[in-house]
Amino acid sequence: FDGATLLFLLLIAVVTILATGFYPAKVRAGYLPALTLKGKTVAEGSGKGTLRKSLIVFQFTISLLFIIASIVIGSQLRYVLRTDFGFRTDAIVTLRSLWGDKTGKMAVLANKVRELHGVDAVIRESIPPMSRAHMGTGAGLQGSDQKPFEVSVYAGNEDYLPFYGIKLIAGRNLLHSDSMREILINATCARALGFSDVNKAIGRQVVGLGDKAYPVAGVVADFYENSFHEQIKPVVFEHDPRIENSLAVKISAGAMAAGQLKTLMNKIEKQWKALYPEEPFSFSFLDDSIADLYAGDFQIEWWTNVAMGITIFISCLGLLGLAIFSTERRTREIGIRKVLGATVSRIVLMLCKDIVLLILLALLIAGPLAWYFMHGWLQGFAYRTAIGGWMFVAAGAAAIGIALLTVGFQAMRAAMANPVKSLRTE
Hints:
Helices cover about 50% and strands about 15% of the residues. It has 13 helices and 11 strands. Helix 4 (about 105-115) runs antiparallel to helix 7 (about 260-275). The model has no long low-confidence stretch (mean pLDDT about 85).
């Protein structure tokens, strides 16, 4: 709200007031007093109403832009949230120590939480498969001239894969150990190491993960570790207790009511405070953490829907005004048609036909513009849905439906009016 912004808003207000006042005043000033005194409130003219129709087309072009945008954004977000991430997310709670786990208390906490009723499984980990936080390092194949490439590092023991349901496609899982002795990689990492056949990566030594090389024990299927805005990257799994400062808790959510879940979380908090009295207890559901990655996209969707509602409302006001004007101009025409045998449905169709044609024209204008803007928006996603023709058809059908609901009552009232009254003259 600086001076320039306020001046701009004031200028917009003044121009809008002058523009919206000037045209009606000009039209009213053109009325003939003799006709006005006879009760004729509509001035004679060419009857084409080019300006009025142009404004309706403009309004519905804007409305259709927002309708199509809303459909595309909603389709993309549904695609994001319904796609198989490559791991399980349901009823998983994560707890993290902010100060690390140098005393080994996290292992004690894991054992205590595991004994609680309503807990299916507990594992120690560095981070879950998808989150905002990531650990990375440079890695490469031992003895290769290949330049090291960046990999995401996940720490957990042999229980990590079965806990999240991550699929193993080559080799085996990590063996039980108390330190880092071998690693797992994803299929993208295997290809980055130079193996088109992931099975050939088994047993090969990878450097860059510590003070020595580590053999590849297995290869897992690719999963989405980032939001869909980013490509799948090379991933390494290792068992390093020094950085496994978080707990992942699988809850029996299917057999648990909301009150029981709260009681369970209170019990977990009690165990946490007994071991970490100076550290605040905080937890997050993995589903919520994943949805938070798309908070900005959901906000865009919300504002688009709000803008769509506002523009549709304004367009319907303009459309209703046009319908009232049109039916008043054609009152005698409608009366003559009824006297000559026209049915109510034919008259309603006659009055609504022009409205539908205007909206179809608006759709022809809005379609390419909407495709251009939404295609550009979708480019921000590495994995995205396609813009289908059904989206434009649905938007057009919605706009026509809203328009017919808006003018339908006015058209029905005009069509059912007594033709004797409409044909009466002074």
